[in-house]
């Protein structure tokens, strides 16, 4: 049997290595492709990236545990390191800092961007997962950077992302953002006034175009003046408490929850409030409806009925009836929930 | 033309009615009680002779030019005569050649160096009258005000941009970028030379609003004389040869010496200038006094930003060096052991804190490893961890038995803290890992008042290792706990600091994460590689914190991976992740 020479041929075998948590075999597959003449950038983007996306999908479908997902991600990181070490690019360009937003742990996509930039001659510093804004700023003051690339996989981090973007801007370093957290078309990046790149190659092109980097439209956040976002964030604890009390009253089974079950319910309710807050921050109810659709998928694959989510959405709509944008987003979310539930039921 | 002629004219637009003798009495009668001083009547008192309208009109600020139906000038008031000397009664107004008036378009015009406004009013009998006013002074006052406002707005924007401490290179690039286009078409900032080399940044105006910025280095001997003078604090005045020098240095793309104006101003620093700013633009706009004042004000702000940045850089270099020596060192590669670490100091801007971990290889193939937490936070605590690690570095060479090593460490620390009167103490788990023949490892651990380690068994069970003991560095001869744990291949031992279990979060942000949640979080993770496990613990802790404040967080995981059935060549083909020094900062 000959070794596969294209990323598409190698892909199924590579996924099996991830499933078996076989670090060495996975590295063999990737290095084999390099030996067969495939450029390092293609190995990263056509093999490692889609495999990692599949890992996420398998977790969402409850086919893989969190532990398997973490193990697979760790192996992907080792593969990226091996491919990067094999390529050994010589830096010719300026310094680019790549980091995950504060609270963002999906470090592999920005790691791939970092390696693609390195392969294209940039001197890249990868700061890793969940980088606190203060740490990033102090880094930028100590090391001159041509640009900062910030990744955000979950839109719930957008308010924090905005703070980080502003912090970089105050350091006068241009920012490029990417990741699914900014919306499939990057619409929320535009809302926050940040240059957005859909993938690693376009991020590299944007970073190479200095004038495009400096030509960024201002943020459009005038809607924050209505104070709905700030009020929601202030009331987060109360909202979770009251939603929990409401659940206990309406669904007697929840009264017998174990501590761990209670924690995960609290964490789910917290997610609902946080995504709602993020939707208010960028003034786009679709952020919330997308989340509801995703949540229903996650919960139904784990045997939790979508009706429980609707109960809490209805509760929040009642408590927050004085906030027109919240009420609108919740109504849209409930409609999305009905639609998603119909799909999974059918 | 007589006064009577003037009186009988009607402006003709219906808005202004000419006062007449018949209306004057009515007006006086209507307001008889009004004191004359409050509002002098326009019309003369009854019984007085009518005013000489010609005389009144001639004292208007506006000059009058009256033309007849054919456009021939019939009357020119003295003011108009002064403003428009070419307009002569009896001639066609169009023939006078005054712009605006000639072609009949009213509005603002510049004539003989004066700014005039002209308005045309139709009179009866197809005649017309031009009212011409000299507005030179009010216009220049308004212009000066606008210019002053623009300058203030510019300086405010500059202060805003340069107000944050920046990296010196950033500050220099930002300064030249801000100077274009307001101050110059090309702006060059030259920093004071360091070891014989001067770095420069240049911004040049391009088609759209964003100027292009580039930079370079010159030997100090090659600096243009004017720039070298500027660096001594002298502002050069011989402007003509300045442009030539800048052109010769290749700094002024698109500008030639003959048609350009340039200025050099020093950037005032602490004792000597931090650099100089050279601005140049086409000679269609020379630099006047106001411009130079603005350039100096700009230079002062740029200089302040640069001085701050340079100061920060010098301080940061010192801090960086010290921090690097205090950042935990990743455990050394050990046969049969896979290490995983996570480190997140309480102060996000700092890479160091009061938690520490590390390892030292023993000559007999074993490895000493430790994780601990010293009292206090921040830099002071980090310095103490440094002392502690150095102690261990030295002591493990004379004693490799964990409990005895811990007692030695206690004595050493006690002596240091008593000598310095610091009263510092530490909690620590210190162990020795020795590989077994079957691919497992035997851990002998000593406890100094630290949280008990967890062991992830291959069966999926998570055990808490019973390890007690007293704080280190408090009393002589403390009680030290001791325990031996065997890890089969694929089993993991997890050490963590109280930053994990005491993380405050949850619904209200005040609930402790606690050991139970930690156990739940790592349950089912027995197949995870050690680095992934350490990162998971860090992640669930940070998720629990939800951006809240936290204590230092440190995690150390050891996994028995065996001499490995796999050939080891791949282990060597995979170097630490590229830029692994930065990876450490990440954890910070």
Automatic annotation (TrEMBL), chain A:
Gene Ontology annotations of biological process type: homocysteine metabolic process; tetrahydrofolate metabolic process
InterPro entries: Cbl-bd_cap, Cobalamin-bd, Cobalamin-bd_sf, Met_Synthase/Corrinoid, Meth_synthase_dom
Pfam hit, one: B12-binding
Keywords: Cobalt, Metal-binding
SUPFAM superfamilies, per the entry: Cobalamin (vitamin B12)-binding domain
Protein name per the record: Cobalamin-binding protein
Keyword Repressor: no
UniProt domain B12-binding: residue ranges: 93-222
Organism annotation: Micromonospora acroterricola
Molecular function terms from GO: cobalamin binding; metal ion binding; methionine synthase activity
GO cellular component, one term: cytosol
Domain of life (superkingdom): Bacteria
Stored PANTHER family: METHIONINE SYNTHASE
Keyword field contains Metal-binding: yes
UniProtKB/TrEMBL annotation, chain B:
Top-rank lineage group of the source organism: Bacteria
The PPM-type phosphatase domain, residue ranges: 337-560
Compositionally biased residues, Basic and acidic residues: 1-13
Biased segments, Low complexity type: 23-40
Gene3D superfamilies to which the protein is assigned, alphabetical: 3.30.450.40, PPM-type phosphatase domain
InterPro entries assigned: Bact_Sigma-Reg (IPR052016), GAF-like_dom_sf (IPR029016), PPM-type-like_dom_sf (IPR036457), PPM-type_phosphatase-like_dom (IPR001932)
Name of protein: Serine/threonine-protein phosphatase
The organism's taxonomic lineage, starting at the top: Bacteria, Bacillati, Actinomycetota, Actinomycetes, Micromonosporales
């Amino acid at each position: 049997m000959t070794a596969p020479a294209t990323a598409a041929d190698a892909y199924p075998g590579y996924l099996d290595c991830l499933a078996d948590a076989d670090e060495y075999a996975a590295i063999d597959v990737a290095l084999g492709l390099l030996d067969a003449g495939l450029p390092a950038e293609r190995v990263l983007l056509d093999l490692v990236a889609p495999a990692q996306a599949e890992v996420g999908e398998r977790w969402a479908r409850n086919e893989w545990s969190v532990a398997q997902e973490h193990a697979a991600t760790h192996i992907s990181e080792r593969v990226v390191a091996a491919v990067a070490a094999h390529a050994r690019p010589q830096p010719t360009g300026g310094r680019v800092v790549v980091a995950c937003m504060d609270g963002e742990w999906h470090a592999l996509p920005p790691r791939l961007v970092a390696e693609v930039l390195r392969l294209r001659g940039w001197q890249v510093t990868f700061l890793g997962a969940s980088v606190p804004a203060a740490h990033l700023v102090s880094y930028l003051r100590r090391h001159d950077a041509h640009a900062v690339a910030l990744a955000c996989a979950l839109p719930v981090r957008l308010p924090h992302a905005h703070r980080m973007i502003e912090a970089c801007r105050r350091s006068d370093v241009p920012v490029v953002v990417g990741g699914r957290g900014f919306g499939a078309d990057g619409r929320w990046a535009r809302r926050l006034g940040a240059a957005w790149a859909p993938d690693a190659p376009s991020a590299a092109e944007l970073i190479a175009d200095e004038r495009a980097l400096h030509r960024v439209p201002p943020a459009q956040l005038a809607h924050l003046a209505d104070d709905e976002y700030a009020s929601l964030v202030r009331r987060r604890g109360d909202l979770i408490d009251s939603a929990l009390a409401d659940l206990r009253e309406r669904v007697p089974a929840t009264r017998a929850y174990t501590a761990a079950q209670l924690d995960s319910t609290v964490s789910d309710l917290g997610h609902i409030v946080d995504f709602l807050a993020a939707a208010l921050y960028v003034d786009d109810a679709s952020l919330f409806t997308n989340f509801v659709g995703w949540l229903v998928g996650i919960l139904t694959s784990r045997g939790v009925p979508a009706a429980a989510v609707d109960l809490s959405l209805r509760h929040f709509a009642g408590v927050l009836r004085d906030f027109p944008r919240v009420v609108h987003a919740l109504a849209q979310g409930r409609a999305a929930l009905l639609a998603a539930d119909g799909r999974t039921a059918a | 033309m007589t006064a009577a002629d003037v009186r009988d004219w009607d402006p003709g637009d219906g808005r202004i009615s000419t006062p007449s003798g018949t209306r004057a009495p009515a007006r006086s009668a209507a307001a008889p009680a009004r004191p004359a001083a409050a509002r002098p009547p326009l019309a003369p008192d009854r019984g007085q002779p009518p005013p000489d309208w010609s005389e009144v009109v001639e004292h208007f600020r506006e000059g009058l030019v009256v033309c007849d139906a054919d456009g021939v000038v019939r009357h020119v008031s003295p003011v108009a005569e002064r403003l428009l000397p070419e307009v002569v009664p009896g001639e066609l107004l169009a023939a006078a050649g005054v712009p605006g008036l000639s072609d009949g378009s009213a509005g603002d015009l510049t004539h003989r160096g004066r700014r005039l406004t002209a308005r045309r009013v139709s009179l009866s009998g197809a005649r017309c009258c031009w009212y011409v006013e000299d507005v030179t002074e009010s216009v220049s006052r308004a212009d000066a005000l606008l210019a002053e406002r623009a300058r203030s707005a510019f300086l405010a924007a500059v202060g805003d941009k340069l107000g944050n401490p920046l990296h010196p290179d950033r500050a220099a690039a930002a300064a030249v970028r801000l100077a274009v286009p307001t101050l110059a078409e090309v702006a060059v900032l030259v920093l004071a030379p360091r070891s014989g080399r001067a770095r420069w940044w240049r911004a040049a105006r391009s088609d759209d609003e964003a100027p292009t910025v580039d930079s370079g280095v010159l030997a100090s001997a090659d600096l243009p004389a004017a720039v070298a003078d500027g660096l001594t604090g002298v502002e050069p005045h011989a402007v003509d040869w300045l442009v030539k020098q800048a052109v010769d240095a290749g700094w002024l793309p698109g500008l030639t010496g003959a048609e350009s104006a340039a200025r050099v101003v020093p950037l005032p620093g602490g004792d000597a200038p931090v650099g100089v700013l050279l601005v140049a633009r086409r000679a269609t706009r020379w630099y006047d006094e106001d411009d130079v004042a603005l350039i100096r004000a700009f230079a002062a702000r740029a200089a302040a930003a640069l001085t701050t940045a340079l100061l920060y850089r010098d301080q940061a270099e010192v801090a960086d060096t010290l921090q690097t020596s205090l950042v935990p060192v990743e455990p050394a590669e050990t046969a049969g052991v896979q290490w995983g670490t996570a480190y997140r100091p309480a102060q996000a801007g700092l890479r160091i804190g009061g938690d520490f971990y590390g390892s030292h290889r023993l000559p007999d193939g074993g490895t000493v490893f430790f994780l601990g937490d010293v009292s206090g936070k921040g830099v002071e605590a980090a310095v103490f961890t440094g002392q502690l690690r150095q102690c261990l570095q030295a002591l493990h060479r004379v004693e490799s038995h964990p409990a005895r090593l811990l007692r030695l460490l206690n004595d050493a620390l006690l002596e240091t803290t008593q000598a310095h009167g610091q009263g510092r103490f530490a909690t620590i788990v210190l162990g020795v890992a020795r590989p077994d023949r079957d691919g497992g490892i035997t851990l002998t651990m000593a406890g100094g008042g630290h949280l008990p380690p967890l062991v992830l068994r291959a069966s999926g069970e998570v055990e808490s290792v019973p390890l007690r003991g007293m704080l280190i560095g408090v009393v002589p001869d403390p009680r030290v706990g001791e325990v031996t744990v065997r890890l089969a291949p694929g089993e993991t031992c997890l050490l963590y600091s109280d930053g994990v279990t005491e993380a405050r979060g949850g619904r209200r942000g005040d609930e402790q994460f606690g050991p139970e949640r930690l156990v739940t979080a790592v349950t089912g993770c027995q197949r995870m590689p050690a680095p992934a496990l350490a990162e998971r613990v860090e992640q669930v802790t940070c998720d629990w914190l939800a951006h809240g404040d936290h204590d230092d967080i440190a995690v150390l995981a050891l996994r028995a991976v065996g001499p490995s059935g796999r050939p080891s060549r791949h282990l060597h083909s995979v170097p630490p992740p590229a830029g692994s020094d930065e990876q450490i900062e990440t954890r910070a």
